[in-house]
Amino acid sequence: MKPARPMPLNALRVFEAVARLMSFTRAGEELGMTQTAVSYQVKLLEGVLGELLFRRLPRRIELTEAGKRLAPKVGEAFALLDEAMASAKTAVDEQLVINTTATFAAHWLARRIGNFQLGAPHIAVRIVTENTPMDFSRDPGDVAIRFGKGDWPGLVAHRLMEIDFAPMLSPSLLDQAGPLRAPRDLLKCKLIDPGDSWWRLWFDAAGVPDADLEGRQRNLFGSQTLEASSAIAGHGVAILTPAFYRDDLAAGRLVMPFDLVCRDEAIYWLVYPEGRRSQPKIRAFRDWLLADIERHPP
Question: What pLDDT band is residue 93 in, cutting at 50, 70 and 90?
Answer without folding.
Answer: low
